[in-house]
Amino acid sequence: MSDTQASPPTPRKRVTRRDLVRGIGIAGAVGLLGGGAGGYFLSPRRAGGSAAAGGGETIKFGIVAPVTGPYSGDGQEMVRGAELAVEDINAAGGVLGRQVELVVGDIADQAPENFIQVAERLVSREGVAAASGGYTTATSVEFNTYAQAGVPLFHTNTLQANTDYVVEHGITNIFQCCPTEPWYASGFLQLMQGWIDDGTWVPSSKTAAIISSNDSYSLSIASVVQQGLRELGWEITLTEEVSVPYADWGPQLSKIRNNPPGLIFVTDYLAGDLASFAKQFATSPTPSLLYQQYGPSVPEYLDLAGDAANGVIWSTTIGTLPDDIGLAFRERYLKTYGTEAGLSQSGAQYDIVRLWAQAASRAGDPYDSEAVSAAVSALTFRGVVGTYRFDPNDHTAIPYPDATDDPSLGMPHLTYQIQDGEQVLFSPAPYGKGDFQLPKWL
Questions:
Q1: Is the model's pTM score more than 0.85?
Q2: I need a labelling partner for 22 at 20 to 30 A (CA). Which of 106, 228, 302, 432 fits?
């Protein structure tokens, strides 16, 4: 490993872990060891022994997840998926003959300082070979830490701003393992127009109510769907922005009931928020199709929403497939943890850890960042959520069928409807196992 220092975040002249630790100094290191709940680490999982960066008996892999706080349901999915991957890798002999050790960093309520603390600890204190997580900051503020140290970071934050940051700063060791959020809106609009064209759904009116949470991901999807609907000749009768967590949807539903739209499109992605909306909507539904963003993929959503979830449509650009590979993973998850796997993050993190292990093996050294990143870029990897293949221009997964018509070369953009308490995948082919049905309230 080189000791050459350089300005962040150019990977070709990166600051090594050894440089970073030396630069922090004793006082800085003590500061990193303190801090709030957002930066604490759980005990290493599924491996014994200790490992220094680039040496020792085990190879450390970091998982960045909201273990506590309002997003902990999703965080638990991430950690469990990574645990199962580490078990598989170690049972098969590890990476280049070395066992893998999972280190969990808690980002709690997703405050930016929590991401920074976790990134610094994973890189400087834990000496991880790579890291992964379902969420990142909207500003990518933690990316420089990974780029400087040459630690590959894999994430499924689904945010175009993260991809733009990587491109603008020339970072080659950060990979967005799912397509970005604009595809949600464009993909849904294509499906919606198809239902209208074939007569499956006749909107009560060409009007829409759009509700988002006040974060860049939700706002971006809301903006794109508004623009797309207007281009299709629809009128937007209501736009609302809420701060999560949000439980009392009375004010929004009152406006919706006073002027019922043909479509209700909610881009708040917190499972508890969306379950509350579905339950309160169900007490007096309007003749509106109801779409909710991502949150129904988390198991707690169905538990909270109950029968009110029936008829709800939702989608994810990364989710466990209902094929032989995906179903085998879900059965194993249930057997291991005694509960059903969610439909997104558990499978995604399971795949990502195994994808990294394959790339690290091909590179010949799990701590050679440039070689590992190059191996990742060259991979076409089939996992439980579909095919990972990265756009060489921005290191982001390519969506199917939105950007490629070949399911073997793209990540499926999955759209589900909840029917009789079950998650029914109906798009895209060949993965769909059911059909879209008009909700009973229509």
A1: no
A2: 106
